[in-house]
């Protein structure tokens, strides 16, 4: 007779969702932490030299903020060992996930686990990897963060706004919003903001809404939202919030977390209803950030849209993009969007 207790399959998505809900219920989003210009960088893998994306990026950003990790580098135990580095005894790793699909399947499946009709999950590879922050590892060369001057940060943010082609009108007293009806962004005068960082944070949030218009990313949460309190409205606000965080971390723009308190309860409800929602939101947010950054190199919106659809670096289903080749197959541990 076998007296062993049956193992319980771990549900990583539910664990991550529950931890985010717990933080939201305390009155703050776990990714909302103020930082100075250039003080935070997107999580990346030093082996593949690629940034983590979507839900994985969000999970690592939240973990870094919670534990005070200043180093953006994350890698597996095996990768550390292959570089003759050593994870400190007693350090706890952070789990991230990897999805791999048959050639030709939609890359959008990676963050929702919504399978096409008639398709079996057996055709898809899902793995959980444990990674450690470089701060948890002995022998790792010191990280030298890129030092950005204040003028450089402001210029970078201004360039994103200008390259977007969005019509930005400074005609509001104390609110900011993207109007889907007129396809433009309305903001208070620049002088009304306490700092340049606060202005750009607000503008980038509304620009994230702008990216979801039917002629651009055609994001359902934007185009099927009708009023404050609508479920899609809260979901769209979550996507704009995360997109602005990704943009600010990518370009070193200071982050101001004092907004969006009105949406916290709505976000809790959305996450309680669906453990995949935060991952869908992070995926959509990263696509929005990708599009706006692609406009730095592409002359037209159509070219930028084509770029993010075809660039291998922007496909989250490629294992080598985030984890690196050394671990493949071996480690499985009138609608207004208002601020």
Description:
With 339 residues, this protein is an alpha+beta fold. The protein has one domain (12-338). Helix content is 39%, strand content 13%. It has 11 helices and 11 strands. It has helices at residues 12-25, 54-67, 77-82, 150-164, 196-211, 220-223, 231-251, 264-273, 277-294, 301-310, 319-322, and strands spanning 44-45, 50-51, 74-76, 86-87, 94-100, 125-133, 137-138, 168-172, 177-179, 184-188, 336-338. The strands form 4 sheets. The chain has a 4-stranded mixed beta sheet with strand order 8-10-9-11, covered by helices on one side. It has a 3-stranded antiparallel beta sheet with strand order 3-6-5. A two-stranded antiparallel ribbon has the order 1-2. Strand 9 and strand 10 form a beta hairpin. Helix 2 (54-67) crosses helix 9 (277-294) and helix 7 packs across helix 9 (277-294). It is globular. The N and C termini lie far apart (62 Å). Residues 104-120 and 316-339 have low confidence and may be disordered.
